[in-house]
């Protein structure tokens, strides 16, 4: 029976009465079949006395046992009752015997263990993903449950699962009631000389990978996934099936040792039993196995969403790296990115941090819906960390029509945070909101269980602006091998370029992500037409993925199939040369291959066409730190491209000027408008108009055109008279363009508007923002006039806004700041509304000081982003010099964006 459970070559052997006897006794065939079925479904159990109490060693094989297959070896030491686990690939010991076991508040289950029973079953599952390197999955594994008893009869079950692509184990504490795990003895042990690619642990997993050896790596904590090479075999270490029952872990290493111990995020974990811990997981095989493995998802629970028809991955236009928070506060900028998505068949645009200080989001979502584009919204984790906040926010944005959320800054692997993940995933699924996690944990099978999770960050990505080529070429074998990775490629306008344009384009294939958040500016895309064309075609989910060539830190070339087309992507770190691409992954017959590569002498991207078969090898010239992208389809008569039709709307632009102006009562203001078709035209039935407040007079014609092709524009000029009795303050003139998109049935009249802001000043008032500064200093970027502080460049701030009220006039500054103006004794009063600008979302802490001729005239208490506006009203009669100062509130300058709103001097 022991041999039977070990999975030996025979299930049952015939017995003879004697070597020379003629009578043979065989078990009936039906009983043999029954025992085989019992073994297959895991109903055979070996009692402790059948396998012995004094120690032993047992092997778990992959389902299709073969000489070079994966095996796990569990050993119980007879002397001290400790248990170790090792893993082999063929004859190579990849993971040396390392301790297993755990300690609870009630029992030490790391030693003095004895085997009570052993239970083996075959695991076969089929499931379908909404994201990933392979949509349709089949799981085949062998799983053995080792039931151990410790001191006092405490029970610990060790589940070991082995499949063709690796090995995993977990603990089960089968008792009822509350259980507290204080630590695990779990570890992975590598040969000391094994090569390693490791990244230091942080809870957001945003550090670069670096090469080392298993023993030579420095003391410290390392994040999953960690990659090791033993001979010709690789082991990628990580974990799967982590939720609020437990917490996540990391690897802790001491230099000189090949052992990497599993360390929990919390000091202890408490759950209600029976408790199954996460799977300690090792993908084992060659690099193709590592990159193509679905083991992490295979170990995760099945989908908790029955109807996934609403879940739609896709390409996303993301504007953050083209203007940061200022771009997110601008309706015009966000409409521009919506228009770009609509012009190129991208299904989404993402509005990041900053939009919540505005009131136009429902308008933008309606604008995008008319153009067939979904809007994704950034939100801070702390805005959704209570049930009440989720119950208010999620239905509200869903009612607006938002397609999904990018949730940021979780920054924890604790059990508490994983319980929050359980809650937010349940609640967003209920509202049918797609999810992208940033500042987040690593994928640990979450996309199988919650298929509306499109991607996760957990990477030192393009936002850093300086990811080196060897870092880019390590990620396919490490971070991206375990789940979707939101690297945000295509940020040509940002940071330091470390790879060529073609290599950057290739990341759309090399990196897998259900949402590909492309981070380029519209201008950067339009300067690269071959890149635009390829990005229109490339999907974000795959039926099949193949690693063609490469090594960590040196290069990665992939072929990924979607329906009947293969997409190619290659990125390399190193000198220029020729990339050889074997095409043996193709089927029989002739194929058309289109390759986009870097042209010579900085000539931009070029496209080349080849007719090939599976016996051919593509030879692609690549530049230093370069690469290429490509698409392959069946070659049929008359086909000269693999491109498929893309649904487009015209890419248009509307400008109105001046954006801001000032006027006196009874004066006139000139306004211009220009509507242009930049791409994917024409636009038809185009009309420009201007709308003014009641009582204002508009002179000028509203121009119209039956059709505007690409490259043409329509302009209008109007003169607007300001009434004599107009109220003081800001007033809006609205330039509007209406047009239709031919060839888009069901699309009605499209409209876009731009605003001219006219500020009417009261008599006898000078605004500080209109006066020259004697001196100025600012903690971040320049002092802004009539705008919030923004970023480093002049005039890059948004509207001045304190607690939801916008102000036309004032100064936007950042602590520590000081502005000095000369009054010359010519003013009677100084007034201002002061506070922290809404653009920092409730953060920041500052104090405002006013000095009159060097003497303190007013000082506020420390104000933060949640405080209401404070009013300053001072008599400045005879004052020669006025100083406006902002200090940091005593806790540093983070987010200290301060507004001197409506700062005015009265004569």
Key attributes of the depicted protein:
single chain, 907 residues, mainly beta, Beta-galactosidase, Chain A, domain 5, TIM Barrel, 5 domains, 13-stranded antiparallel sheet, 7-stranded parallel sheet, 15 helices
Q: What is the radius of gyration?
A: 33 Å
Helix content: 10-25%
Biggest sheet record? 13 strands, antiparallel
Q: What characteristic shape results from the CA principal axes? A: globular
Stretches where pLDDT is under 50 for at least 5 consecutive residues are 1-52
Distance linking N and C termini? 103 Å
Count of DSSP-assigned helices? 15
In terms of DSSP E residues, the strand content is 35-45%
CATH architecture of the largest domain: Alpha-Beta Barrel
What would CATH call the class of the largest domain? Answer: Alpha Beta
Q: Can you give the mean pLDDT?
A: 93
- Domain count: the total is 5
Might you state the CATH topology name of the largest domain? TIM Barrel
User: What is the CATH H-level superfamily of the largest domain?
Assistant: Aldolase class I
The total count of strands amounts to 61
Name the structural class: mainly beta
